[in-house]
Amino acid sequence: MKNNDNHSKQYRIFDRLTHSWYEVTPEQYKEFDQWRTNLRKREQYWGRCFCPRDKWWLCDGNCLDCEFHTRNEVSLDNPLPDGEGTLGDYVPDDKPTPEEITADRDLLERLINCLHEIDPEADRIIQIWLDHPEGISDRKVAELLGRKQRTFADEMKKFRGKFKDFRNN
């Protein structure tokens, strides 16, 4: 009669490099098996792993050296089949250029300096705006600053008027 006792199960991991088995604790095996299964599934989803089910025990997570790993990377520099340029010539790049980043940073610094000229508590106002990324009304900002709403609204109107001048430059 066969004994189906799970307590006698051996937990072993195969090392492809040395072609040997290593005894591990059930916790170590479970953690390693979960990690390599997640990795294998991710690689299979992206079409880079073609490991057959009967060879999953060989998986050690070292995909670059695995016989079932394939590279299906596409280079933007490879010529197109029709010979008309490369894929990089047709893929739009929507990232800002270094010049645009520098210009935006310069504009932000100029706006902050302008706000400092108009209001001595500019740093506090900026912090309030940062604390409310969803937007906050001038009335609420004036309330948080302990000022009259009309006075603060006039200052912001003046600031926005200067902002239009900056934006048009």
Note down, in words, how this protein is organized:
With 169 residues, the chain is mainly α. The chain has 2 domains: 9-73, no CATH class; 98-168, no CATH class. It is 47% helix and 5% strand. The protein has helices at residues 26-45, 98-118, 122-131, 138-145, 149-168, and strands at residues 12-15, 20-23. Strands 1-2 form a two-stranded antiparallel ribbon. Strand 1 and strand 2 form a beta hairpin. Helix 2 (98-118) packs antiparallel against helix 5 (149-168) and helix 4 (138-145) packs across helix 5.
Any chance you could write out the topology, listing elements then pairs?
Elements: E1 12-15, E2 20-23, H1 26-45, H2 98-118, H3 122-131, H4 138-145, H5 149-168
Antiparallel strand pairs: 1-2
SS strand fraction:
under 5%
- The total count of helices amounts to 5
Structural class: mainly alpha
Low-confidence stretches: none
Question: What series of H and E elements makes up the topology?
Answer: EEHHHHH
Give the beta-strand count. Answer: 2
What's the number of structural domains?
2
State the end-to-end CA separation: 90 Å
**Radius of gyration in whole Å, from Cα?**
31 Å
What spatial order of strands do you see in the largest sheet? 1-2
Multimeric state: single chain
What about the largest sheet? 2 strands, antiparallel
Which range best describes the helical content: under 10%, 10-25%, 25-40%, 40-55%, 55-70% or over 70%?
40-55%
Envelope shape = elongated
Rounded average pLDDT: 82
